[in-house]
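Example 9 (inverse folding). The structure is encoded as follows.
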C-alpha cells in the first residue's frame, strides 16, 4: 500500500487535468470530480478515480485540491451541505490552487478552521504548458507546517514553490503576477504591430528581442501565438479579465495606484466585450491591430 496521502481533486479544466495527471504519475492516488463527463473519463484513463460529487470525492481524502475558475466556484464547492467543509474529515489539508480574491482565501481558512480542516491558498503561474510540463510557479499562503506537509505534492506540479506569508498571501502574489503578465503581453503585442507595420521580419525581430533585456517568459511562451495568430486558449481572456479585476480591487484596498495596469485592465475588458473572451490572452494582439486600423 502506498504511504502517500490520498488526494481528492476538484476541477479538471485546462490546468486541473494535466496537474492531476502529474500527481498520478508521481504515484498519488487521485479521486477527482468535475462537471464535464469527458474530463472524468480522461482522469480515469490516466489512472485516477472519478467521483459523482464533491462529497464523494473528499470523504476519504487526506488532501483536497481545488482548481476552479474564480471565487464563486471556490465558495460553491467549499460550502454547503454537499461541499468540502461538511464532508472532508477533520485534519484534512485543503489546498486551493484557483486564482481568487485574497479575502476569499482568508475567509475560507477561517471557516475551515472551525471544522478542523487546514487550508493553503496556492495559486499557480505557467499556464497550460507549465501545467503539462510540471514546471509551474506555486505561490502559497498559510501556515509553515502545512506548507512543509504539502511541499512534495507541489514538487510534482511545479519548479518554483514559495511560501509567501499567511492566508491570502499566495493570492496577493498571484494578483501581482497577473498584472505583470497582462502588461507584458500588451507590450509584446504593441511591439509586434509596430514591427510588422515597419516591414521588419517579425520572427527574426522577436528572436533577437527575446535574447536581450526585452526577453521574458511571456515572449518565449507566446512568440508562436503572435507569429501564427494562434489564439487557442492556454489561459483565456475571460479569466485574465477576472484576475485584473482582482488586482485592481486589491490595489485600491491597500492604497496602491496601478496607472499602467488600469489601462491594460480596460484593454482586456474591451477585448472580452468584442467577443474574444474565449481566446488566449495573447489575443491582446487583436486589440492592438484593431486600434491600428486592421480588420480582425
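The amino acid assigned to each position is listed next.
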Amino acid at each position: 500500500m502506498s504511504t502517500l496521502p490520498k488526494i481528492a481533486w476538484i476541477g479538471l479544466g485546462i490546468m486541473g487535468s494535466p496537474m492531476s495527471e502529474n500527481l498520478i504519475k508521481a504515484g498519488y492516488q487521485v479521486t477527482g470530480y468535475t462537471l464535464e463527463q469527458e474530463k472524468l473519463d480522461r482522469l480515469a484513463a490516466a489512472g485516477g478515480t472519478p467521483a459523482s460529487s464533491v462529497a464523494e470525492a473528499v470523504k476519504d481524502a487526506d488532501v483536497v485540491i481545488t482548481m476552479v475558475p474564480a471565487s464563486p466556484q471556490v465558495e460553491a464547492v467549499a460550502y454547503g451541505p454537499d461541499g468540502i467543509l461538511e464532508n472532508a474529515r477533520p485534519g484534512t489539508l485543503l489546498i486551493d490552487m484557483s486564482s481568487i480574491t485574497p479575502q476569499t482565501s482568508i475567509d475560507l481558512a477561517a471557516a475551515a478552521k472551525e471544522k478542523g480542516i487546514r487550508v493553503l491558498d496556492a495559486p499557480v503561474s505557467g499556464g497550460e504548458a507549465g501545467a503539462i510540463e510540471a514546471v509551474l510557479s506555486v505561490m502559497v499562503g498559510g501556515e509553515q507546517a502545512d506548507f512543509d506537509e504539502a511541499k512534495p505534492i507541489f514538487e510534482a506540479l511545479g519548479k518554483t514553490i514559495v511560501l509567501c506569508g499567511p492566508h491570502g498571501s499566495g493570492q496577493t502574489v498571484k494578483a501581482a503576477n497577473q498584472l505583470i503578465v497582462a502588461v507584458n503581453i500588451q507590450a509584446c503585442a504593441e511591439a509586434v504591430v509596430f514591427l510588422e507595420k515597419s516591414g521588419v521580419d517579425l520572427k527574426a525581430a522577436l528572436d533577437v528581442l527575446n535574447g536581450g533585456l526585452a526577453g521574458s517568459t511571456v515572449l518565449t511562451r507566446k512568440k508562436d501565438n503572435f507569429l501564427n495568430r494562434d489564439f487557442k486558449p492556454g489561459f483565456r481572456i475571460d479569466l485574465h479579465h477576472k484576475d485584473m479585476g482582482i488586482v485592481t480591487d486589491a490595489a485600491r484596498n491597500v492604497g496602491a495606484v496601478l496607472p499602467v495596469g488600469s489601462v491594460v485592465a480596460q484593454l482586456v475588458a474591451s477585448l472580452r466585450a468584442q467577443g474574444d473572451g474565449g481566446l488566449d490572452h495573447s489575443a491582446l494582439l487583436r486589440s492592438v491591430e484593431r486600434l491600428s486600423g486592421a480588420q480582425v
